[in-house]
Amino acid sequence: MNSVISLNGIRFLVLVLVQVLICNHINFMGYINPYLYILFIILYPTKNNRSLFIFLSFLLGLTIDLFSDSGGIHAAASVFIAYARPLILRSSFGVQYENYAIKFDNVEFGSKISYITFLTIMHHIIFFSLEIFSASKIILVLQKTLFSSIFTILLSILITIIFSRKT
């Protein structure tokens, strides 16, 4: 139990630092900016307390907002995907999720990709819709969502492969 708490605490801090110190300063062509902090939400254990998880997701987003001066949009997008995560887990992993038998190091690669992709795209649509907040600029929202999602998904998959415990 303590190892799970310490692992998630370290993951929280490391992802906040990576996001604030590195990722927030990457901005290719005005559209591509990775949001790796959502890996905390993606990789959080499924068996843990859901209320605590949603609170931690809010705290994660709020911390990123404080460093980014973004007025709560990271917090809103983070809470949304934390709340929607069981639905995405069920659609990506099916019976494994129902039995709480998900270990991200042991799941099929295709299921892992679909799970990361769904959560990332949901996060980015909410995030960029709130950031731009104009119905007349829906094309810009979709462009930023598409390009940032691709970059975030590729980096997230790469990071999960590199830090996988499976030999």
From TrEMBL:
Transmembrane regions: 12-32, 52-68, 75-93, 113-133, 145-164
Entry keyword set: Membrane, Transmembrane, Transmembrane helix
UniProt keyword annotation of Transmembrane helix present: yes
Protein name (database record): Rod shape-determining protein MreD
Organism: Algibacter aquimarinus
